Every structure is written in structure tokens, then in C-alpha cells.
Amino acid sequence: MIAGQKVIVVLPAYNAEKTLRQTFDEIPHDVVDEIILTDDASHDDTVTVARELGIRTLRHERNRGYGGNQKTCYMAALAAGADIVVMLHPDYQYSPRLVTAMAAMIASGHYDVVLGSRILGNGARSGGMPLYKYIFNRLLTLIQNILIGQKLSEYHTGYRAWHRRVLQRLPLLNCSDDFVFDNQMLTQTHFFGFRIGEVSCPTKYFAEASSINFRRSVVYGLGVLVTSMAYRLHRMGLRRSALFAEGEDSRLPKLAAERPAA
Predict the structure, then answer these.
(1) Which of 3, 146, 175, 200 has the greatest number of C-beta atoms within 10 Å?
(2) Third-level CATH fold of 7-244
(3) What is the mean pLDDT of residues 86-91?
(4) What are the residue boundaries of the structural domains of the chain, listed by start?
(5) In the predicted model, what is the mean pLDDT of residues 233-258?
(6) How far is CA 36 from CA 74, 112, 144, 227, in A?
(7) Is the pLDDT confidence value at 262 over 50?
(8) How confident is the model at residue 257 (pLDDT cuts 50, 70, 90)?
């Protein structure tokens, strides 16, 4: 807990058996009130390891995709009474030790969302980010900053902290269940006027770390461009987009609860 605010870390997991324990060990347990893992129908022993570690675990019977996994994570965190939710990949690509800093930035009242940026501090390439991913990251970020009027160092990090009110407000059920979910969610965050902060985060690329291949990266990149154009057209009143809808039926509390892992 920080400044009287309950902190929950959510772990969207898929085949994270080999890295989950190391990720868990470095989470600052003196600050984090609860950890929730959602297993997206993994083929390995992710659920077994999570149970051994005492992590509250939910399991999808079928794979729902990266975005679908996060929707379950956030819904569960809200139901558990989280004030601050930190989404951390259990593949040990991002440093769990930054949970305290990211949660504290939100607890300070200055920010509603905090991103762990791989670009600030030049950590991306030194951490092993492939050159083509780095180039795509910088190019897409430049385009998005222009189209949506932000000044972020990157839009593509998977390390994010959210205040409860953000998760309750965003129409996340209208977002994709695939990898572009992250980008759509962040674009929604800007659209609805929430304050976004960033902290420099070292990154590790290695065999066990989750990473999409070149083909999926291209699909993701096209999705990012479509999302940015949807934002611009919606802002200009030329074409309405469900990504920026205000309806209650598009918000997370409407998502059905997932059963606990057996």
C-alpha cells in the first residue's frame, strides 16, 4: 500500500513457467498488497508454479489473446478493490523493482497512468532489443505523437501502471483482444484526458522473454496506424470510432468473472 492506496500487480501470463518465479521474487512485496495472475491457456506449468508461489491465479480455458488476457486481469483487480494496478509481464523482460516507483507516481496525485519506457535512458538497444523493433518503435511513436498530439518517448511498452478511475472509465471492451490492445488502451487514455507519466526502465531480451515475430510486428504496426487515424478522424468529427465511446456497456465491470484455476 502507498499513501493509503491499495496496490495490485497483475500478471498476464502465457507459457511463463521459466520466468515467473524470478519475476515474483523481485516484486516489492512490502508495497504490493496482492498479485493476480491470469493464465491464457498456457501449454506449460505456469499455473503450477503460480500456485506454488501462492499467487491468486485465474485461468482461461481457451486462449483469448494478449488483449483478452489483460481485460480479465484488470477486471479482477478492480473487483479486488485495487486503487493502483500495475501490469507487469511475468517473462522478466521488465524490471519488477520499478513497481514501487510507478505506483508512487500515481499515488502522488500527479499522474493517472505511468509507463515504464524502454527508450528513456537508452536501455532498449543495450538490453538487446532487435534493431528492426527499435526502428519500428521510434517511427511509430513519432507518427503517433503527431497524430494524437502527445509527447511520449514510446507507446509500445508492456509495463504500465493505472489508477482505478482510468480502468473504470475506458471503454476497454471495445478494444482488440490481440497485441494492438496496448496501443488502443493508451490512445483511449489520452482521448479521455488522463495524465500520463513515464519512468526509464531497463529491458531484457532473451530466449524465454515474450516477443512477437517480424510478421506479427508488422500486423501490430498497421494496427497502431489504424488506431491513430481513428483517433484523429474521431477528434475531427469525420468518423466515429467505438474505441472512444462513452457507453457503460463498453466498460470493464461488465466483463464476466473468470473462474479460479483448479
Answers:
(1) 175
(2) Spore Coat Polysaccharide Biosynthesis Protein SpsA; Chain A (3.90.550)
(3) 96
(4) 7-244
(5) 80
(6) 9, 21, 31, 29
(7) no
(8) very low
- Nearest alpha-carbon partner for 252 in 186, 160, 175, 157: 175
Contact 11, 91 (CB under 8 A): no
SS3 75: helix
* Reported pTM: 0.90
Q: Output the pLDDT for position 246.
A: 84
Q: Which of 134, 172, 136 is nearest to 255 (CA)?
A: 172
How far is CA 35 from each of CA 48, 110, 190, 241, rounded to the nearest angstrom?
15, 24, 27, 34
**Cell numbers representing residue 106 in the block:** 500515481
What is the rounded (10 degree) CA torsion for 225, 227, 230, 234?
-130
pLDDT of the residue at 74: 97
Distance, in Å, from the CA atom of 216 to the CA atom of 144, rounded to the nearest integer, reads: 19
**9-31 burial string, b = 16+ CB within 10 Å, else e?**
bbbbbbbbbbbbbebbeebeeeb
Q: What is the helix (H) or strand (E) element at residue 24, kind and residue range?
A: helix 20-26
